[in-house]
């Protein structure tokens, strides 16, 4: 039998993959499992997007331009202009989800062996994309105690070497819900300019900023035109994850032209998803207000209720729809598995994402879990009750 | 300004990219340009696929399973069974086009620096995917004189080193239209087994085999269960290139589980494309008969007409809808550019794909061009007339 590749063996499995069979087993036993572990919102896709698909009237589902439909790119540019981001349509490459935009960014800004600094905990697939493109992730740890604020610039500066080519930020952040302030962003801008680094900013949760906090894009940082790469996606903004449409945006022409060659190699982003995406640009304001109010209500409920549980700490997220909580347990992964395998409260249980998988530094986050508040409030209430009751009896709890 | 990556700079541009601006210029001058350069068929997508999209009635366009919708994978397995390929649904990973399946195959079968043997001329993006995954392409030249038949096994064997991990075949072949015989395939099977190699077979043109020739899949070669990887796509079979749906198929469980980690990293293949793909499985036989007859007629016309032109040689393709022709010119790329930039016949001209870009060995194919016979016969007639007349006056012709 031929050997498979070592790099394939080294690819990290999804951090919840180990738990999936336990969740399936629990369901087979007839238990209700509340999924707080995934970023698949239950929010409806805008009607304008669904209608555009239903009214598709071409005879052939053709390739689009490798950079995406020109009409869609022009629409995207208008959208960015409308929120104060100065971008032309020919500075946008439509991609197969934000995922592909990230791969393009790593392949074009970095050679293999180069280093990218990423505040941890971070979206676990950054690790997969870094492995795929053979770049080294250099983590900087952010702290649950201050709501996972961007670490001090001095911490970044300590990590910079000859091989450092870029800093990757997710703003607002999956998995922490942190939203970086203008002050924080200008500080890393200065650092990027000082050391000639790219800042790759994953801003797919841009629309989800709460309490009057304003989102500042990397593309809005003065003087960063040649250093900024924006990663975007329609998945969360319009709750249309299945369209697999994102984009890679930069004003750096050389970088754009390099990314374009990767785009040409895979011919075209998905056409039907682009049609949904283009129509979504006309989503009425009322849709976002409704979604926004729903997430605010969910967040406020879940944060308050979790913090009332003895030994649980949940920072107040300023954006996205995630938060990382610390739990009074020795090992959150074991606790999450136990919830699915052994525990139920009134025949209900909960699936959480153990947070260790979001850290690059071994040993961190072992008593933390990520919560996605993507369920209706009534379900969230039941889920929090399960967590509360379970911690009273969990054998591995640290508070006796 | 930060430096972009060297690997990005090294990525080959599309072989027709240089010609695109000339084609656009020609159109601006009001000329009709017949596109024989691209594989975008004008054939209609099956009604069943278009209707499935139009009848989409879910409220949320969600992620699918990372391996694709289970119902679609079960349908695909049935399709494969029906054509004599023994595959279960859980041996299939639905991908974003055949392109992604190829990347998964290279990443999982080979480490960086490993070698893959590919008969040339080959689909030019194999080069891009090899660069992306840092594997070395070792070409074996096939010959226009015998219709680009698979080279002798002894030629393959000469190229095998310690780093050789796989052989990649495209069958039927884009860009040559060659279809490999049972005898040829069994010979490279024996070689693969002898040296413990994978055979990665790109079979996306499986349905396009002419003159009673039967397609044999790599999955049907006895004893190859652990060594075979099938790359497939719905793009050409159902003329739905824009759906971006393909698949990665293997019975090698270790390889499958490795590929699955790459699939999880990008979350999900496009949902809407999968819905079109699943519905396409019910395409009536009459559709394929019509398409088949249309391509046969186009092929027969174009091959006969081209061979009548003095100095042109066009082998008879047995499959797909491409052929590579040799031209009585010193440099086909210059000729192709001249056709767009300077020549017209009754205000019409032609865009061809210079074939040098399909060879990995420098200096080969310089007097060859690839033709995709994806246009209606009337257009093909006009296009051939342009080629015929142009060669009478082209300054760089070799036959005076």
Main features:
14% strand; Aspartate Aminotransferase, domain 1; 400 residues; globular; Aspartate Aminotransferase, domain 2; homodimer; 3-stranded antiparallel sheet
What does the model show?
The structure is a homodimer of 400-residue chains. Chain A has 400 residues and is an alpha/beta fold. The first copy, chain A, has two domains: 147 residues, Alpha-Beta Complex (Aspartate Aminotransferase, domain 1); 234 residues, Aspartate Aminotransferase, domain 2 (3-Layer(aba) Sandwich), CATH 3.40.640.10. In chain A, 38% of the residues lie in helices and 14% in strands. Chain A contains 13 helices and twelve strands. Chain A has a seven-stranded mixed sheet, sandwiched between helices. Chain A has a three-stranded antiparallel sheet with strand order 9-12-11. In chain A, strands 1-10 form a two-stranded parallel sheet. In chain A, α6 links the parallel β3 and β4. In chain A, α5 crosses α6 and α5 packs across α9. Chain A is globular, with a radius of gyration of 21 Å. Chain A starts with 5 loop residues before the first helix and ends in a 7-residue tail after the last helix. The model of chain A has no long low-confidence stretch (mean pLDDT 95). Chains A and B meet through α1, α3, α5, α6 and α9 of A and α1, α3, α5, α6 and α9 of B.
Draw up the topology in text.
The structure is a homodimer.
Chain A: H1 6-10, H2 20-28, E1 32-35, H3 47-54, H4 70-82, E2 92-95, H5 97-109, E3 115-120, H6 125-132, E4 136-141, H7 153-159, E5 164-170, H8 182-195, E6 198-202, E7 228-233, E8 246-249, H9 253-265, H10 271-280, H11 285-307, E9 322-326, H12 332-341, E10 348-351, E11 353-354, E12 368-372, H13 377-393
Parallel strand pairs in A: 1-10, 3-4, 3-5, 5-6, 6-7
Antiparallel strand pairs in A: 2-8, 7-8, 9-12, 11-12
């Amino acid at each position: 039998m031929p050997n498979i590749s070592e790099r394939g063996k080294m690819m990290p499995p999804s951090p919840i993959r180990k738990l999936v069979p336990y969740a399936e087993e629990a369901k087979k036993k007839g238990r209700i499992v509340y999924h707080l572990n995934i970023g698949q919102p239950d929010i409806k896709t805008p009607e304008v997007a669904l209608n555009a698909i239903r009214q598709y009237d071409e005879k052939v589902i053709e390739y689009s331009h490798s950079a995406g439909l020109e009409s869609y790119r022009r629409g995207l540019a208008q959208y960015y202009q409308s929120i104060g981001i100065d971008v032309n349509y020919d500075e946008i490459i439509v991609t197969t989800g934000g995922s592909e935009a990230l791969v393009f960014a790593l392949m074009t800004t970095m050679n293999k062996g180069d280093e990218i600094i990423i505040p941890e905990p971070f979206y676990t697939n950054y690790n997969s994309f870094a492995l795929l493109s053979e770049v080294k992730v250099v983590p900087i740890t952010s702290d649950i105690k201050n709501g996972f604020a961007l670490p001090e610039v001095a911490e970044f500066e300590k990590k910079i070497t000859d091989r450092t080519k870029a800093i990757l930020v997710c703003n607002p952040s999956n998995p922490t819900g942190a939203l970086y302030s203008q002050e924080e962003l200008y500080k890393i801008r200065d650092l990027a300019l000082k050391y000639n680094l790219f800042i790759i900013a994953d801003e797919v949760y841009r629309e989800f900023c709460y309490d009057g906090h304003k989102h500042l894009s990397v593309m809005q940082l003065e003087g960063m035109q040649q250093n900024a790469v924006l990663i975007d996606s329609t998945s969360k903004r319009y709750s249309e994850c299945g369209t697999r449409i994102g984009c890679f945006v930069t004003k750096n022409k050389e970088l754009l032209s390099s990314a374009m060659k990767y785009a040409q190699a895979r011919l075209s982003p998905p056409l039907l998803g682009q049609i949904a995406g283009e129509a979504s640009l006309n989503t009425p304001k009322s849709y976002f207000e409704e979604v926004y109010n729903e997430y605010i209500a969910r967040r406020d409920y879940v944060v308050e209720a979790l913090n009332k549980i003895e030994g649980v700490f949940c920072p107040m997220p300023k954006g996205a729809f995630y938060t990382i909580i610390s739990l009074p347990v020795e090992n959150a992964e074991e606790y999450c598995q136990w919830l699915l395998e052994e525990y139920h409260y009134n025949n209900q249980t909960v699936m959480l994402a153990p947070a260790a998988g979001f850290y690059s530094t071994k040993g961190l986050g072992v008593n933390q879990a990520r919560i996605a508040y993507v369920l209706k409030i009534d379900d969230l209430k039941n889920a929090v009750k399960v967590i509360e009751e379970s911690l009273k009896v969990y054998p591995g709890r640290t508070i006796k």
